[in-house]
Design a protein that fits this description.
Helix content: 55-70%
CATH architecture: Orthogonal Bundle
Structural class: mainly alpha
Distance between the termini: 80 Å
Strand content: under 5%
Shape: globular
CATH class: Mainly Alpha
Oligomer: single chain
Bound molecules: magnesium ion
Number of domains: 1
CATH topology: Hypothetical protein af1432
């Protein structure tokens, strides 16, 4: 029987092998042992826009992850909706719990494929930071408000947040994250750039994990809220196939227990499909570095069977959930509120906090108002709307 060394054994062995090494050397040696050559190794980072000395015991991407977790934008995700607002109940996902689920799936993929888990986690935790209040409804309203002026996109705003709007350090604006994290966020904006040069595998893994998470959990949330029923979902081919697999093991499951088992199966199926498919491609051994990854075909994709099954589920969710009258009503109310707030702050910029009015000269009044509104949580936007823009009798 082959006994694999544990990570503790590896660390002890490394420390013994390099008795005079610094923590930094050990971290890099550990990556050389555990990561594949096509992974993004910390030693090869392009660094930060504002150069900083290395941290004594945290690698660059570990540090990025910590900076994101300690940012205000990250904390605010807890009060930003994913698909359903907080008024509807407390079971469904918020933007923060969705972010954790993406990070969880992405870490599993990264570890199985021997990619850089710290970088994957930083990318996953940052991927939705730029969402304004009320999710895509809020995004569309702000985009309309800024029509002809560059518009608004949550991905672009995410980059603005981490590059300049977060003000936490005296030495530089933004979070000064590693260039690989900024590049990962930028590929979410510019699809043409992806066609010219593929993103790092760590970036591709987070994209795939996002899709696994929202396809699975939006259906779960919609079920719990009663927008769709389990028998209806079990007619969708992806769900019926997952239920068939579950029943091979537990023939008698029904109701909520069956639902939970199907959800587990769906995640496991999608993740296993990715690990098997991408793992086999990587095992061919022709990707010896990130240089090769950038020039190879886009790699982290599910099988054609799953792509088609997921497409059918997404069409079902679009028709039955995202366009459900209750969801559309929330969307229309939120958009009307944000449009009114946008016009209100533009008409009376003295209502803006100093940190945003101080930026008007540099970025313009309308962009500054949009930056302020985009940072609000759903709850804070409603509170400020009532406080400043609702006439009192
Ligand atoms: Mg997401």
């Amino acid at each position: 029987m082959v006994v694999m060394p544990s990570i503790v054994d590896l660390s002890v062995n490394l420390a013994m092998a390099y008795p005079t090494s610094t923590n930094d050397d050990l971290m890099l040696a550990r990556e050389r042992l555990l990561l594949a050559p096509y992974a993004m190794h910390s030693a090869d980072t392009a660094g930060r826009k504002h150069p900083e000395p290395p941290h004594p015991y945290r690698g660059p991407f570990h540090r990025d992850r910590d900076r994101i977790v300690h940012s205000a934008a990250y904390r605010r995700l807890s009060s930003k909706m994913q698909v359903f607002t907080g008024e509807l109940g407390d079971y469904h996902r918020t933007r923060l719990t969705h972010t954790h689920e993406v990070a969880s799936v992405a870490r599993t993929l990264a570890r199985a494929l021997k990619l850089n888990e710290d970088l994957v986690e930083a990318l996953a935790l940052a991927h939705d930071l730029g969402h304004p209040p009320f999710g895509h409804a809020g995004e569309d309203a702000l985009n309309e408000c800024l029509a002809g002026e560059g518009g608004f996109s949550h991905n672009r705003h995410g980059l603005r947040l981490i590059e300049e709007l977060e003000q936490r350090y005296p030495e530089f604006p933004g979070l000064n994250l590693s260039l690989e994290v900024l590049e990962g966020q930028a590929t979410r904006i510019d699809k043409q750039a992806v066609a010219l040069q593929r993103p790092l595998l760590e970036v591709q893994v987070v994209e795939a994990a996002d899709s696994v998470a929202y396809d699975t959990h939006d259906a779960d949330d919609a079920l719990e809220l009663g927008l769709v029923s389990l028998p209806e979902l079990l007619l969708v081919p992806l769900w019926s196939e997952a239920a068939k697999r579950v029943r091979l093991r537990y023939a008698a499951l029904a109701g909520k227990v069956l639902k939970r088992a199907v959800l587990h199966e769906l995640i496991d199926w999608q993740v296993s499909d990715l690990v098997t498919r991408v793992g086999a491609r990587l095992a061919a051994g022709d990707l010896a570095s990130t240089f090769d990854v950038r020039r190879a075909a886009y790699l982290v994709e599910t099988s054609q069977e799953l792509i088609e099954l997921k497409r059918e589920l997404e069409a079902f969710l679009r028709d039955r959930v995202y366009r459900h009258p209750d969801v559309l009503r929330v969307r229309l109310d939120a958009q009307a509120m944000l449009r009114e707030m946008f016009a209100g702050y533009v008409a009376r910029p003295e209502l803006l906090p100093a940190s945003f009015s101080g930026r008007i000269e540099r970025v313009g009044l309308r962009r500054s108002v949009s930056d302020y509104l985009a940072g609000m949580t759903d709850r804070y936007a409603q509170q400020e709307y009532r406080r400043l823009f609702t006439p009192r009798c």
